[in-house]
Amino acid sequence: DAGVTQSPTHLIKTRGQQVTLRCSPKSGHDTVSWYQQALGQGPQFIFQYYEEEERQRGNFPDRFSGHQFPNYSSELNVNALLLGDSALYLCASSVVSRVYEQYFGPGTRLTVT
Amino acid sequence: AQTVTQSQPEMSVQEAETVTLSCTYDTSENNYYLFWYKQPPSRQMILVIRQEAYKQQNATENRFSVNFQKAAKSFSLKISDSQLGDTAMYFCAFMIQGAQKLVFGQGTRLTINP
Fold first, then answer.
1. Closest residue of B to A56, CA-based?
2. A36 at interface of B, judged by CB pairs closer than 8 A
3. Helices and strands in chain B: count of H runs, count of E runs
4. What would the pLDDT profile of A53-106 be if each residue is shown by its tens digit?
């Protein structure tokens, strides 16, 4: 049973560019949440997707957008990258009826130069 | 606003010792979940233990146990017979029942020395 997978593992981008990060949920899960973890900090909630719609959003600008596909996988897009967007981006999946049981992927390390 | 505070940025103990990590939180809600997550150098966030706020009995998972004090809004993690593999960042987190997001603390870096 595959757990949560994320791609790519590492990514280096330049300021002003756009980036897309991908997440495949654990088998049987239908809900995907995204978190940003800056170096030395705890993760911060970006948003959550269920039934291909954004259910809740954290305090992040509109440059951060997402998408969920019919197979429950998800993408996180960040436009007009800033140096401050450098972080570990974590994806977590769950079943909508038990959203408190979130399983995390290994993360994507984004570096903006 | 909901917040989580971990007052110990770093801790270090010898293998086989017992260690307690502290966590306090602030919420006006009555129904919520509390968690301790472990993040080793591999970066993957792993759930250590979960506590439902409506349960008075403290949760235990093998060598890991919590001391949940609801009135004091305190949720500490005790690791007994610590092992080298316990070396990691530990994050305290909570989620309001019915909400979707986890709110995390700043983390405690725990090192187990041989």
1. B100
2. no
3. 0, 12
4. 999 999 999 999 999 999 999 999 999 999 999 999 999 999 999 999 999 999
